[in-house]
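Long-time lurker. I teach an intro course on protein structure, and each term I like to show students one example going from raw sequence to a predicted 3D structure in token notation. This year I'd like something fresh instead of my usual example. Would anyone be willing to generate the tokens for the chain below so I can use it in lecture? Attribution to the forum is fine with me.
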Amino acid sequence: MALTYKQKFNKKYGFEKNKAHSLKEIAKLTGYKLSNIRKIFQKGKGAFFSAGPSRPNMTASSWAYGRVYASVSKGSKSAKIDKDLLF
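-- Reply from a regular --
Happy to contribute to a lecture. Here you go:
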């Protein structure tokens, strides 16, 4: 089974596979501005409300965190969409 973006992030930074991080922690670890990480998070929440959940039990926050992890991983469609925020 393929790793999720959160799991890839945790592997890269030496954390347990399913450890959750705050936006502040993600910004500190990656070196990206917290304000930009928050913008990506808000875009993720907006995407959830416009498209709806793709999996059972998914929430707007879980969708938004997924987008943040994908964006900082730079290996996804989200990373390409949000690249203007990651500098």
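Some talking points for your students: The CA atoms of residues 52 and 58 lie 9 Å apart. The helical segments are 5-13, 23-30, 34-51, 60-73, 77-81.
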